[in-house]
Amino acid sequence: MTLKIISAEKIEFEGKIDQVTLPGALGSFQILNNHAALMSSLVPGTMSYVTGETTTHREIKGGIVDVKDNVISVCLY
């Protein structure tokens, strides 16, 4: 899967990942390979993604996520 983390200023990250966990309005949710297409709002919380054996955590203020064809686009506020 490809993760793109986009802010108003720049593309902050773009790369291959194994999974991502995001803070949604109804709780955290995880996206794995071949996930169904979806669009969701994000709330303040911790976003984490796994690449191989490395897990990266990041605090976010909110945003939206779009998932389609193994591309996850996270647009941050």
Task: Give a brief outline of the structure.
The chain is mainly β and 77 residues long. The protein has no helices and nine strands.
Layout: helices, strands, pairs:
Blueprint: E1 2-6, E2 11-16, E3 19-24, E4 27-31, E5 38-42, E6 45-51, E7 54-60, E8 63-68, E9 71-76
Parallel strand pairs: 1-9
Antiparallel strand pairs: 1-2, 3-4, 3-6, 5-8, 6-7, 8-9
Describe this structure in words.
With 77 residues, the protein is mostly beta strands. The protein is built from no helices and nine strands. It has strands spanning 2-6, 11-16, 19-24, 27-31, 38-42, 45-51, 54-60, 63-68, 71-76. A five-stranded mixed sheet has the order 2-1-9-8-5, with no helix packed on it. It is globular and about 25 Å long. The mean pLDDT is 97.
Biggest β-sheet strands, sense, barrel: 5 strands, mixed
* Run of helices and strands: EEEEEEEEE
Percent of residues in beta strands: over 45%
**Sequence stretches where pLDDT stays below 50 over 5 or more residues:** none
Shape: globular
What is the spatial order of strands in the main beta sheet?
A: 2-1-9-8-5
Mean pLDDT: 97
Extended strand count: 9
Through-space gap between termini: 23 Å
Helical content stands at under 10%
Helix count?
0
Tell me the Rg in angstroms: 11 Å
Query: What's the quaternary structure here?
Result: single chain
> Structural class of the secondary elements?
mainly beta
What descriptive keywords fit this protein?
single chain, 77 residues, mainly beta, five-stranded mixed sheet, four-stranded antiparallel sheet, 9 strands, 69% strand, globular
